[in-house]
Amino acid sequence: MKKGVFFISILVLISALFLLVACEDKNSLTGRITTPVSLLMISVFDEEGKPADGVEIFVNGQFKGVTSKFGQSRGSKTVVLDEENNLIQVVKEGYVTQKGTVSANPQGTQKVVFNLEKKKSVLLVEVLDNQIPLEGVRVALSQEKAPLPLRISSTDRDGLTYFEKTPDGNYTLRLSKEGYSPKTITGMVNFTADDGILTFTLNLEKEPKLKLIVLTEKEEPLFGAQVALYSKEGYNSPEGWPLVTETSNEEGEVEFRFVDEGTDYFVVVKKSGFTAHTLNFNYDRKHPHYSVVLETLE
After folding, report:
1. Among 203, 227, 255, which residue terminates a domain?
2. Do the domain assignments include residue 191?
3. Smallest Cα–Cα separation from 204: which of 178, 171, 170, 169?
4. Is residue 110 part of a domain?
5. Residue 17 pLDDT level (bands cut at 50, 70, 90)
6. Spatial CB neighbours of 273, under 8 Å, sequence gap ≥ 6
7. CATH code at 160?
8. Which of 49, 77, 120, 179 has its CA 20 to 30 A from that of 70?
9. C-alpha distances in angstroms, 133 versus 115, 197, 209, 264?
10. In Å, what is the CA distance from 190 to each residue of 146, 155, 166, 170, 265?
């Protein structure tokens, strides 16, 4: 009887050793290292710090579900980790995919937090003067109808400047440069529609200028002449005042800025010892120069 019991015990021991060797052989063949299962709670927040629900969770490339929409677990998802090192990916449309690596730890539930960042466009601005790149243009970016700019930049030698990480929305661009007419445009930024890059190509026109040269009868520059610029209405009104009055320099020159294309103006030129002269014209930026000859009084 004792011999039978001893024989059965030997058989059980041999079977256990066989199973152990078989398991070791299987692991050596697959190359897989068995690790204890652990839990990981993933919490996801948006840019405002609020829990983000409906966010897709991937562990080592495998879809594990989405973050909860309800209760205290909103914006979170608990997953099982069965690998030593695990690549966690957090995916939501319109946001940059977030990634992180977590090592399995069977001692309780681990926690990891991801903060989503919206996909943002690069806003590229190209400024030209008659198809020639224009350097040194001040470009101010602001939200539509906002009085203060969000960011300010200047164009480089290639007439280019850009604003990175521009969120979707409506914006206003204000361009300015000495000697040029300012320009303001409004446009919409949409990352998906723009493929991440939105380009504006804009032309600036030289600031309208009216230049007059005051000469004597001998065609010599006349210094110190008073030159008054009137609108048509102001000139024809008995109580009208000039828009601006300037005095000719040593070269007999006077410049007026901010004149309007296609507008009728009157210029009255006076100097003591000379007869006054009135000039009427319709301003054309292609022909902005005029000369006035004052005759000496006899």
Report:
1. 203
2. yes
3. 178
4. yes
5. very low
6. 296, 297
7. 2.60.40.10
8. 120
9. 41, 20, 22, 33
10. 19, 23, 9, 9, 46
| Any domain includes 234 | yes
Q: Which two tokens stand for residue 256?
A: 């007026």
What pTM was estimated for this model as a whole?
A: 0.57
Give the tokens for residue 82. Answer: 């069965």
Give the count of beta carbons closer than 10 Å to the beta carbon of residue 183.
17
Domain with 109 in it: what CATH number?
A: 2.60.40.1120
Return the half-sphere exposure (C-beta side, CA atoms, 13 A cut-off) of residue 152.
7
Q: Note the maximum CA span of the chain.
A: 158
Q: How far apart are CA 212 and CA 266, in angstroms?
A: 12
> 269 is written with which tokens?
């030129």
How far is Cα 118 from Cα 148, in angstroms, rounded to an integer?
23
- What is the tally of structural domains in the chain? 3
Task: Domain of residue 253: give its range.
Answer: 209-293
**pLDDT, average across residues 132-161:** 93
Which CA distances in Å does 4 have to 1, 11, 18, 69, 286?
A: 5, 11, 21, 64, 121
What is the token pair recorded at 195?
């493929």
Domain boundary among 70, 91, 115: 115
71 in a structural domain: yes
Q: Which tokens hold the place of 133?
A: 């790149």
Helix intervals (H) in 31-108? none
Mean pLDDT across the stretch 266-279? Answer: 95
